[in-house]
Amino acid sequence: MTNTKLMPLQLAEHIYEDMQRLTRLLPIDKVEDLLRRPLLQMAETAIALLPSTKLAGDGVALSHMVLVTDNYICEVKGTPQHPQYDIIDRGSVTNIRVEMWTQEIREGETVKATFYLAKIVWLHNLYGFATESSFAGESLEDRDEWVDKVFRVMPASSVLRR
Predict the structure, then answer these.
(1) Is residue 3 part of a domain?
(2) Which structural domain range is residue 32 located in?
(3) Closest Cα to residue 153, out of 77, 62, 52?
(4) pLDDT in tens, the chain (162 residues)
């Protein structure tokens, strides 16, 4: 088991690997600080951690994270000093909206970089409430892998379970 400030039973083992991957965007202690309170309040083991990345002025940045347990979805935003999060019933998802596109960064006619982006929105049966996760990266394969992971966590068939 990986050494972490989070209680071992709050995270499925594979999530520690996801947390380590985030360290290129945010130090591990900050990731743990952001996740600690939502995990305690959900009182369930997280089965998935979905990082949400975006394009920023200096490349890809972490926007927020989505924690998923057997019964809850938790969108975690903010900073350790000012955390923000929503916890909602996982069974309340009634629609899954997917958007994927490519964005080129150009200098004149020269393509300096190509980014592959995706946004997946889980719409809930509560008026206007949605959980959003996004991906920004320089690899089409990484984007496709991220989309596949999101659908393993919340398969399209899950909207029928109501």
Answers:
(1) no
(2) 8-155
(3) 52
(4) 444 555 444 666 667 677 777 777 777 788 888 888 898 899 888 899 999 999 988 888 888 999 999 999 999 998 778 889 999 999 999 999 999 999 998 889 999 999 999 999 999 987 789 999 999 999 999 999 999 999 999 988 888 755
* 136-162 as b/e: b if 16+ CB within 10 A: bbeeeeebeebbeebeebbeeeebeee
Q: Could you tell me whether strands 59-68 and 110-124 are parallel, antiparallel, or unpaired per DSSP bridges?
A: unpaired
Residue 160 lies in a domain: no
CB 28 within 8 A of CB 20: yes
Whether the predicted model's global pTM rises above the 0.85 cut: no
CA separation for the pair 136, 139 (Å, rounded): 9
Residue 1 counted as domain residue: no
Torsion of CA 81, 76, 20, 115, to 10 degrees: -110
- Domain total of the chain: 1
